[in-house]
User: Fold this.
Amino acid sequence: MKVAIVQDHLVQRGGSERVVLSMLKAFPGAAVYTSIYDKDKTFSALKDANVISAGLEKKIVLRNNHRLAFPLMPRIFSKMKIDADIVLCSCSGWAHGIKTDASIISYYHTPAKWLYQREEYLGPGHPMTRAVLAACTPALKRWDQRAARRVDIALANSLSVQRRVAEIYGIRAEVLHPPPGLEPSGPSVRPAGVPEVFDLTVARLVPHKNVEILAGAFRLMPTRTLVVVGDGPLRAELESSRAENMVFVGSVSDEYLRWLYANCSMVLCPSWEDYGLTAVEAASFGKPTLALRWGGFLETIIEGVTGSFFDQPTGEDVARAVVESSSNTFDPSILRRHAASFSEESFIHRLREVVAERAIPSDV
Assistant:
């Protein structure tokens, strides 16, 4: 049985890219198809994989900002033909539209945010981007809906995404939580410029991650320090408006990230999150998470046991919740057991079952 994997793009070190690494463990030797591949910006483990790109990385402007290629993506994926028995898509918008005669299993991280959750995705401002997306949206939605109708089996990374897939596409998806991609065991290195005591946030620096509200929160907490891990189009703007007690370290290696998780006081997650992978990763290191009470965090955090919530994405709410959470005691052994329930072994086992079930002829 020949399995192929499809990922929207491979230009960053995020949750969907970590899922691709787990898919490759489930199906060693599977080719990975994508629209644009920058080996220096995504996980180094993919250098050993058979990655087949549409070649958009050859355009420097797209390699530096893959979002500029959004209007081109339907054509790119519709032309990329895959010869396989099963095509396994890691999809946040484009991968399920791949051209193939094989059975399609689509693992949805989310339906395309730029089509169905534009306010959260773009945040305030961006008038030119809004105008371009508004002009393209009708055609992109028609393509996206057609692509979803071709999916044979749908999987969702959370109950929140399962509901959205049902509402937007009219199809039922099985929930299969992705595993934390970063194992606590492994090399650990302290990044330069990081203090002994600090709080941590790990996020792509894009509007729906709400990292900007943390500046307001830490201005109200001058005795605490926040280390910000992540990169993205808002980095320059966020750094210029940061509180003095915030340290930006950019996108870091797993060795640095292990040290940061292991040595932080708590992890802060103010984003509109579909799943909440960061909370699971933090728990695997025995660290609690303080998160916005929304979406996937409601599935990955047990309130008062593995973390706490704040109700509004404002600096005042975050600061108040940090003070309250600091007075609580979280048991690291309970946190680690909680993280173990989202194991990679369970994810791989169920994924292999789903693929095997689809590969069995219906008349058997």
Summary: The radius of gyration is 20 Å. The chain has a mean pLDDT of 92.
